[in-house]
Amino acid sequence: MADDIPADLRRRCLLKTVAQTVVIWTLALAVLPMGIVHIEAQLGLDHLHVRSPAVRATGVAVFCLASTLGLWSGWTMAWFGAGTPLPLDPAVRLVLVGPYRHVRNPMAIAGLAQGAGVGLMLGSPGVLAYVAAGLLFWNFVVRRWEERS
């Protein structure tokens, strides 16, 4: 299936996928959550944070599993679909292997689960609310936009 994709195109897609992953994960999973935690502290809401080691450990596990799914999905999209995770640079071939064999958009599942993992690691209700807002945005805006394309 990927044999008909030129090697240079596959290589470019993989490099773009790595670059996009670094930028998006840094912003969505580090910068924004830490900003939310900072705002919670400024508003005096940090007393709402859950500081349980079990919750943090669960967050680490969820984050690691979701990150594995995200990396696998991105690689599969680039290698077999000649595209990237960014909706503005989608696959040019339908991908029905790897995680795409089981679910339609494993990258969305991975990203939301990663966010939930970060929220649990930080014990922050605000970060978990951010993830819930992301779920709604994904379902009612991004998914509909992608389905029209």
Tell me what the structure shows:
The chain has helices at 7-42, 53-81, 106-122, 125-148. It has 149 residues and is mainly alpha-helical. The protein has one domain (2-148). α1 packs antiparallel against α2, α2 runs antiparallel to α3 (106-122) and α3 runs antiparallel to α4. The longest helix has 36 residues, at 7-42.
Q: How large is the count of helical segments?
A: 4
Number of domains: 1
Rounded average pLDDT: 94
Q: What is the helix/strand order?
A: HHHH
Helix content: over 70%
Distance between the termini: 23 Å
Using the CA coordinates, give the radius of gyration: 17 Å
Low-pLDDT residue intervals, each spanning 5 or more residues:
none
Which helices and strands appear, and what pairs or packs with what?
Elements: H1 7-42, H2 53-81, H3 106-122, H4 125-148
Task: Give a short summary of the structure.
The chain is mainly α and 149 residues long. The chain is 71% helix and 0% strand.
Throw out a few tags for this protein.
single chain; mainly alpha; 149 residues
